């Protein structure tokens, strides 16, 4: 637990005091946000706000994790390093997208196919590597199975497993990206899901099968390391939110949203809670589904379900204040994260599904 606290504290401080430095640097270099013409009119005032702040989130998370392990003399483990590698890899894809937008002075960066290809390559490397590095109990960071509260179902062969992980990672990172449309919305929602993973990984640590074989123990490699990763990302998001809350002085950009989606997907894979992430990150799912419904319904009928997608912009066009939408969506995110943690605990308590 000491390592978790140190990691969260260091990441928070680095992000809290590093973000204003990034704001000054990005302003001097003209790295400002470009606004879509078809977006809500109120967003015009955000034009020029520094973007790519996700760089701070990624760097603070990596340093927080590394320093905490050194300070507490805990060895870095493959599970945590793979999840952070996934975070950094997707952050790089997002950085390229953000940089191209700024360089071209356009609201679109990488083509959708190129962005998806980048996510697929990073996801495939993670999927392959997560099945390596067995410990003395033959546990690897991930298993070639589906999981909810723990692994279930038949073992998947290599290709289906890699495809599933790529789809999951791309879906999660794009869902967080779609949520990042209002000041502080994606950051605050990510904080709640990361807090849930700190609790889940710590609970798995206390009940891992390598310590005590019981009916409800968990076959998870490096649960403490995963808790440290979640805490590092949590602390960096907390520090960043101080500057990203309405009215935002900096945006995370695709650099941050894709990176945060990556760390959430990686934690889900390595804690064996892949499908539980759908509940824990329920707000991200709802917002992603609003886009799918809008696009699908429009192609079928030529009509729109929402005034604008993603969903948060629909409420903007209904006249809701931005802070009202953000706070209410945070409440939904908190309910989803709480429900997911509650179900996780109840399953352990009852043993149903083991």
Walkthrough of the structure:
There is one protein chain. The chain has 354 residues and is mainly α. Helix content is 67%, strand content 1%. It has one domain. A two-stranded antiparallel sheet has the order 1-2. The longest helix has 29 residues. The two termini are 27 Å apart.
How many distinct folded domains?
1
Globally, the shape reads: globular
What low-confidence regions span 5 or more consecutive residues with pLDDT below 50? none
**Could you give the distance between the termini?**
27 Å
Number of helices: 12
Mean pLDDT comes to: 92
User: Largest sheet, if any?
Assistant: 2 strands, antiparallel
- DSSP summary, beta strand count: 2
Relative strand content: under 5%
Helix content: 55-70%
Structural class: mainly alpha
Radius of gyration: 20 Å
**Element-by-element helix/strand order:** HHHHEEHHHHHHHH
Strand order of the largest sheet: 1-2
């Amino acid at each position: 637990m000491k390592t978790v606290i140190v990691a969260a504290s260091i990441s928070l401080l680095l992000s809290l005091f590093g973000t204003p430095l990034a704001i000054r640097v990005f302003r001097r270099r003209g790295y400002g946000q470009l606004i879509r013409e078809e977006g809500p009119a109120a967003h015009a005032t955000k034009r020029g706000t520094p973007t790519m702040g996700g760089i701070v989130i990624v760097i603070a998370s990596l340093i927080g994790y590394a320093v905490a392990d050194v300070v507490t003399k805990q060895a870095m483990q493959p599970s945590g390093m793979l999840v952070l590698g996934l975070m950094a890899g997707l952050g790089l894809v997002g950085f390229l997208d953000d940089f191209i937008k700024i360089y071209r002075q356009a609201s679109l960066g990488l083509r959708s196919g190129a962005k998806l290809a980048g996510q697929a390559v990073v996801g495939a490397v993670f999927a392959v590597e997560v099945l390596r590095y067995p410990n003395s109990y033959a546990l690897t960071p991930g298993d070639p199975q589906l999981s909810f509260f723990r692994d279930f179902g038949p073992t998947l062969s290599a290709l289906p497993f890699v495809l599933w992980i790529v789809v999951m990672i791309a879906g999660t990172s794009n869902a967080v990206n779609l949520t990042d449309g209002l000041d502080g919305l994606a950051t605050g929602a990510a904080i709640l899901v990361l807090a849930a993973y700190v609790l889940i990984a710590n609970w798995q640590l206390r009940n891992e099968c390598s310590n005590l074989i019981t009916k409800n123990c968990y076959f998870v490699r490096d649960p403490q390391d995963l808790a440290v990763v979640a805490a590092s990302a949590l602390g960096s998001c907390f520090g960043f939110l101080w500057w990203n809350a309405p009215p935002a002085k900096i945006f995370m950009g695709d650099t941050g949203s894709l990176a945060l989606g990556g760390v959430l997907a990686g934690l889900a894979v390595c804690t064996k809670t892949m499908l539980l992430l759908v509940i824990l990150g329920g707000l991200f799912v709802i917002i992603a589904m609003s886009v799918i419904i809008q696009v699908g319904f429009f192609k079928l009928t030529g009509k729109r379900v929402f005034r604008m997608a993603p969903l948060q912009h629909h409420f903007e066009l209904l006249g809701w204040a931005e802070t009202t939408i953000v706070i209410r969506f945070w409440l939904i995110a908190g309910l989803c994260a709480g429900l997911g943690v509650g179900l996780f605990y109840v399953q352990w308590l009852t043993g149903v599904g083991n």
